[in-house]
Amino acid sequence: MSIFTCLVLSLSIATDSTIKKQNFLLDEVTVITQRNEQKVFNTMGSVAVLNAKNLKNYQYRSTPETLFGANGVFVQKTNHGGGSPFLRGLTGNQTLILIDGIRLNNSTFRYGPNQYLNTIDPFLIQNIEIYKGGGSVQYGSDALGGTLQINTANPVFAVDKPKVNGNAIVRYGTSSLEKTARTELSFATQKMALKAGLSLRKFGDLIGGDTTGVQTPSGYDELAFDVKAKFQLSKNVFLTATHQNLNQSHVPVYHKVKLENFKINEMSPQKRALSYLQFDIKSESPLLKNLAFNVSYQGTEEGRNSQKNGSNVYRVENDQVKTFGSFINVRSEISPNWDASSGIEFYTDKVNSTKQDTDFQNNKITYSRGLYPDASSFNSYAAYSLHHINLNKWDVNFGARFNAYSINVNDQTLGKVNVSPQALVGNLALGYHQENHSMTYLSFNTGFRAPNIDDMGTLGIVDFRYELPTANLKPENSYNFEWGYKFRTPTFSSSVALYHNQLRNLIARVKVEGQKINDYQVYRKENVEKAYIQGFEWATEWMVLPEIKIYTDLAYTYGQNETKNEPVRRIPPLSGRAGVHYQASNAFFVKVEDIFAGKQDRLAQGDKDDNRIPKGGTNGWNVLNIYSGYEYKNVTLIGSFQNIFNVDYRTHGSGINGVGRSLIATLMYRF
User: Fold this and answer.
1) pTM (two decimals)
2) Which among 655, 622, 654 is positioned nearest to 210, based on CA atoms?
3) Contact 413, 372 (CB under 8 A)
4) Is the CB of residue 112 less than 8 Å from the CB of residue 92?
5) How far apart are CA 428 and CA 7, in angstroms?
6) Which side of the chain, N or C, has fewer Cβ within a 10 Å radius?
C-alpha cells in the first residue's frame, strides 16, 4: 500500500459530487432499493450513487470503467472490450444489471465474467445506482450479489419558448489508445423534449504498464446512436420513448490469442438495441400517487469468430436473444407514514443460436448446432409489493415477490424439455435514526437466480472447458444478513457495513470424469454446491475546506465453498481507493486518486486452472491517477492522467493487464 494511501486511509468519500459546505453529505437520491425516491443516507442497505457530475468530470472510457474503484465494486476485464462488475464477490448471471428499470440480464447470461455492461454507451448515462447485497424482491432473478441500475439522461422541457442546443465531444488517448467523437442535439418545447446522440469510437491496442507494453490484439471499433423523447400528454400524464443501439466489431479476446494457440479469437458483432415506451401517470389519490407502465424490446447479438494456429477451419458462431418485456409499478401512500410500491412484470426471451465452420483448404462449409439450442424460449412472470413505514425515529422496510418461469428447450441431446421453476423471496429491514446525523440498520434479504438457457443448453467450449447440456435444474438461493451504520454532518460522512450471504443450491460445473472432447475436459452443470460470502465495506469523506475534500474507502470479501471445502471462485482481494479533490470554482477542478488492491492468493481449484490467473495468485498493486478539468464559457477541457508511475498490474481474474501510463484529453463544446 502506498504512502499516499496510508496518509488518508482514515478519510473517505461516499460520492464524487461537488458539495457545498452547508449541504449534508450522503444526500444523493436513489430509487433502487424501494422503487421509490429515497436519500442514500436513509436507505437501510449499502447503496452508492455515481452521479452526472462524477461521470462528466472523469470521462471514463467505458461503462464498466465508471465503476473502477467504486466502494464494494470490483471490475474484472476478460478483454479490453469487456468488463464485468463484482458485487459482494459475485458477477455474471449472479448480479443484476438494469437500464432505466429494464433488465439487461437475459436467458443466456453466463456464470462468471462477461462483456454485457460494455454494450451500454457511457455517454447515455445520467447516474449509476449500486445496491450491494439485494434486489431480488424489487427486480427479480440474478441479484444474488446485488443490483446495478443505469439511469439514462432525460431531455428537459423548455421553460418558455422552444430551445435548440447541443454538445460536441472529441477525445483522444495517447498512443492511439482512444479516438472518440460524440455529438448530441436537443430540442424542447413546454410539452415536448427530444435528445439524440451519435458516438463514433476507435480503441487501439491496450498498452500495459512497465514491461508489458502493447497488448495485441485488443483494440476494436464502436458505433452507437440513441434518441430519447419525453411528452407531457396532459397535466399528470407523461410519455417517454427511447431507442438505444450499440455495435462493437472485431473485439479480440486477448488471452485466448496469447495463451490458447488461437490465430483469431474475437467477438464480432457485439450488439445491443433497446427500445421502450413508458407512461408515467400522477394522481391525487393516495393509493395511486404514481403509476408507471413500461413496454420494451431488447435485442442482443453476440458473434464469436475463431481459428486456431495451423488450422484451415474458420468458425463463426452467432447467438441472438430477442426480449420483450413489460411492467406496471404503482406507488401508494397507505397512510402519512406508510408508502408502498407494488407491481407486476413479464419478460419473454427468444433465443437463436448458429455455428458455421468454413474449411478453406477443402472449400467446404459445415453447419451445426450453436452454443445454445436454437429457437429456445424463456418466460418470466412476477408480482411484488414493497413497503416502507416511518415510526418517528424508526424505519421499517419489508416486501415480497413471487416469480414463475416457463423454460422451453428443444435440443438434440436433451430432447424437448420444459421446466417451470418458481421462487418466493422477501426482505425485512429495521433502521434507527439518531437526530439527523446518524442511522444504524439491520437488514435481511432473500434472493434467487432462476436457471436459464445458458445453464441448461450450453454445448461447446466455454473458457477452458467443454460443456454439455443439462436439464432439471432448480433456482439458486441467497440469504443475506447485513448490519450498517451511517454518520453525516455538513462536512463529514462515514459509513460501514458488515454482511454475511448464505448461498444454496448453487449451479456448478461438474467434471465428467474420463471424458475429453477436442482436448478439453468435459463438464456438466448441477445444483450441487453451497457456500457463504462475508465481508465489510467502509467509506468516509471529509470536507476539509469548502473547496477541498479528502476521501478513502475499503472493501474486504471472504468466500468459502462449503461443499468443496475451498474458496469461492474469483473472490476479489482487499481493495479500495483514497484521494483528494480540489474544486476551485465551478470552472476548475483537480483530483488525485490512488486505487489499490491486495494480493489474492486464496484460490479455488477453478482459479488455479484458469489461465487468466497467474500461478500462485494475482499480485497486489497501487495505481495513481490524476484528473483535471477547466470550463470556460461553452468550452470544457478535461485531462485524465492514468497510472502515473506506469505500474504493471492486473485486476484479479482478468485476461488482460490494466492500462499503463497514458493521457486522455477530452474537449467538449456546448452550443
Assistant:
1) 0.93
2) 622
3) no
4) yes
5) 39
6) C
